[in-house]
Write a structure and sequence with these properties.
This protein is of the alpha+beta class. The protein has 18 helices and 23 strands. A hairpin with a 2-residue loop joins strand 13 and strand 14.
Length: 680
């Protein structure tokens, strides 16, 4: 009540009451597909016989992004044909989950099974009776039903015109319908997942429209499936709106899509208007004035932007564009993201919750590359290109036609070195830059990570965020990637900066304060603190100084009494040379050498752990197994290097960490690095 407010508590109580009273089971009863023929969804004057219905849709349906597939030679100019190999792998049962993770899921997959663990959710119960996390991590069950590989199938078909790709699409659609009757099983449970599925189905329908495998009977059946899905989204969209996050945006986009592309549905106008109204409203409440996103997550911000790009482009094509207020908000959001994108890699700090969602995978760019989204959003707003030509341009071709490739390139703007984006502070050197998090929260945070610092050099994320991994893993992984201890910050007495109440809710939010940011020539100084340890009468203050590309980070733990204090840094898993007594770690990278020196004013224990295994330091402790990991996408974790200084003394305690970057042509470290290779 104190943290979230009485209105939030009342709405949560209302949702719980709906569950207890089985409201959804009454509103959306179990059915089979034959109980609701296509005619029951259509306006009375629309023919329901498949061939006549498809003929009507040739002129009466809403306009999609493309009327015909782009030419193969045009796609070849902006693509490496990665979609062909991905589509071919899918036909053998090898899926890509969460943008990066190869999974042997089968073709067609078991739609109710987690292919990594074998956990299954019941396929014979109403979705409202199925808990989210009683059968392992339900996101691993939902992932196949997003139909994300459809984008690769269509892109591969455009290049090759191989009929095995539309054949595969329709086989997946029909198998899904067979095993997922309306409202039955886990794949109807989440309205956001249903919305992503509608997007993929529509992309496949229009992408394969000219294929001999796209028969009138199949088009009619898929139309009915989309109508049933829109009805499901509409029935429980209040639950998504309550969360004030990307779920509400995605579900509003799903309704708008069904209502725009299928005007023949009886409820199409209502869905279209409701979706538009909710998208307009949420653009004002979920995007802060400086462009930062309400969920404090880089990937969720991309999800939101991609959903809006889809909806706004459909609205433009169908002659009913959204208001200018929405475009203004999205411009702010994409400008914010522009500032966070590393120019060389296209990546952003892996900050906040990252569940592996990639709504519009329309290029050969890596999942972690945000340049396609930046290019799309900038073109949507200005009809200009933000970036020079590259493989990220394929998304423009699909959404805006080939004319977009000739769009004028926006002139390069020099960004200020220090910027404040709702608690995101950026410092920029000649070849390095840092993001520091020091937020005053108005909406619930995802991780307990005040004063976390990301450091980048020559396109490499040197000091990195550990990511998310899973929302419902078994112990000890259930809190391993969200706590203060795994971020590049300080913890006191082994406690988090905030109190974790549930899987997605922190209480007693730590609030940050910006104390100083100053720039003089090629030097910068930033200082901030947070009050997350006020219950211990302790303050953590961090000062970051940059001189050229040399960084000094001073952490002061202020207060009274005797405390255990830990400074943590996470680095990529690279060949290394360690000098524990000097507190020095040298990392070999493809771009040069990174030298990290960490010291304290009091006696400390220096430790380095990789993938839960102690490299340097005392014998392994129970919490060490979760140290030294990084998750770049959902359900995936890789080894990383976790450096810690542990101190136990009277306050104040001061740490100093120094980062220096050395090119191989200016300093020969090859002998040390050969030792490091052997050690690794």
């Amino acid at each position: 009540m104190r943290q979230m407010g009485p209105r939030w508590l009342a709405t949560r109580a209302y949702q719980e009451a709906k569950t207890k009273l089985r409201i959804m089971q009454r509103r959306l009863p179990l059915e089979n597909w034959d109980q609701r023929p296509l005619a029951s969804w259509l306006h009375v004057r629309i023919p329901s016989e498949p061939s006549e219905y498809v003929h009507w849709r040739e002129t009466g349906a809403g306009k999609f992004f493309f009327g015909r597939l782009p030419q193969a030679d045009l796609l070849s100019s902006v693509s490496n044909h990665g979609a062909v190999s991905q589509a071919d792998a899918l036909l053998t049962g090898r899926w890509i989950y969460f943008g990066m993770l190869p999974v042997e899921a089968g073709f067609p997959p078991n739609w109710h099974c987690n292919p990594l663990t074998g956990d299954s959710a019941p396929a014979d119960r109403h979705w409202a009776e199925i808990p989210d996390f009683a059968f392992g991590d339900i996101k691993l069950i939902w992932e196949a039903s997003r139909f994300t590989p459809v984008y690769a199938l269509v892109r591969a078909y455009a290049v090759t015109r191989n009929e095995q790709y539309p054949d595969a699409f329709w086989e997946l659609v029909e198998d899904w319908a067979l095993h997922n009757p309306p409202q039955l099983g886990p794949n109807w449970k989440c309205g956001q997942e249903a919305s992503f599925r509608v997007m993929a189905w529509c992309f496949g329908l229009y992408g394969f429209l000219a294929s001999r495998h796209t028969t009138p009977t199949r088009v009619a059946a898929l139309s009915k499936m989309i109508a049933a899905t829109a009805e499901r989204i509409e029935a429980n969209i209040g639950s998504a709106l309550l969360q004030n996050n990307n779920h509400g945006v995605s579900e509003a986009m799903g309704l708008f899509t069904a209502g725009t592309l299928f005007p023949e549905f009886r409820r199409a106008e209502l869905w279209r208007n409701q979706g538009r109204k909710l998208l307009e409203r949420q653009s004002q409440t979920q995007i802060y004035a400086d462009g930062a996103y309400v969920q404090h997550s880089m990937n969720y911000q991309r999800v939101m932007l991609q959903g809006y790009a889809w909806a706004l482009r459909l609205a433009e094509l169908n002659g009913e564009p959204f208001s200018s207020d929405v475009y203004v908000q999205l411009r702010r959001s994409s400008d914010f993201l522009d500032g966070m994108i590393d120019a060389q890699s296209g990546q952003v700090p892996n900050y906040g919750n990252n569940d592996g969602t990639h709504v519009l995978p329309l290029t050969d760019c890596d999942y972690c590359d945000f340049r396609p989204t930046l290019q799309v959003m900038h073109y949507l707003d200005t009809k200009q290109r933000r970036l020079a030509k590259g493989i990220w341009d394929e998304a423009l071709v699909w959404l805006f036609s080939e004319e977009s490739l000739n769009g004028q390139l926006k002139s390069t703007l020099i960004k200020p070195s220090i910027e404040s984006h709702n608690g995101y502070y950026l410092l920029r050197g000649p070849e390095s830059w840092a993001m520091i998090r020091c937020a005053k929260y108005h909406d619930r945070p995802g991780h307990a990570d005040q004063l976390h610092m990301d450091l980048w050099w020559r396109g490499l994320n040197v000091a990195l965020d550990s990511g998310t991994y899973l929302y419902n893993p078994p112990p000890p992984w259930h809190v391993a990637f969200v706590t203060s201890a795994v971020h590049n910050t300080v913890t006191v007495d082994g406690k988090d900066q905030m109190r974790r109440f549930s899987r997605f809710l922190w209480l007693d939010w730590a609030q940050g304060s910006n104390l100083l940011n100053r720039r003089e020539r090629d030097c910068e100084l930033w200082q901030g603190e947070h009050d997350g340890y006020r219950r211990l009468c302790v303050v953590h203050r961090r000062t970051v100084e940059r001189r050229g590309d040399t960084w000094s980070v001073i952490d002061e733990v202020l207060g009274n009494g005797h405390h255990r204090v830990r400074l943590h840094w996470l680095f990529p898993d690279l060949p290394r040379v360690i000098e524990a007594e000097a507190g020095t770690l040298k990392l070999k990278t493809p771009r040069g050498s990174v030298v990290v020196t960490a010291r304290s004013t009091v006696a400390t224990d220096f430790s380095l752990i990789r993938a839960g295994q102690v490299i340097v330091g005392k014998e392994s402790r129970s919490d060490d197994i979760t140290r030294g990991w990084v998750s770049h996408t959902y359900a995936s974790k890789e080894p990383a290097l976790s450096l810690v200084l542990d101190a136990e003394a009277l306050l104040p305690i001061r740490f100093e960490t120094r980062f220096e970057f050395v090119s191989y042509d200016s300093l020969d470290l090859q002998s040390d690095l050969r030792v490091a290779e052997v050690g690794k």
